[in-house]
Amino acid sequence: MNWLRRLMYGRYGFDALSNFILIAGVVIYFIFALLGWNWLLFVPLLCVVYTYFRCFSKNIQKRYAENEKFKAFFRPVASFFRIRKRMWKDRKSHKYYKCPKCRQYLRAPKGKGKIKLTCPKCRQEFIVKT
Questions:
Q1: Which residues cross the membrane (predicted)?
Q2: Please, what is the end-to-end C-alpha distance for the chain in angstroms?
Q3: Can you tell me whether residue 121 is helix, strand or coil?
């Protein structure tokens, strides 16, 4: 394994964008294979080639900037699904509200009647029924 360590020294390696491109390439491959679009199977191959290009690249600053742009784009999407997952998990014991001023999500226990919520972000107070 020492040869692999020497090979990867000074290289960028895998990151979130590389993993996303690789997984997207595999998914596209299976979709095209199931649909019988064999003439488009070069698209997943390009995804794999680009992933390995990023992995073995020595231009670390540029690959890092690309990954940061991807994460900045993907962060709201991941946050949306993370919040929905938590809402689903807590659906029996808590209710979620949005602050009318800053749109921050607030969690309140169910079955308490009318309560006054205070947003921890902007200090806006509002009354809700749980």
A1: 12-31, 37-53
A2: 59
A3: coil
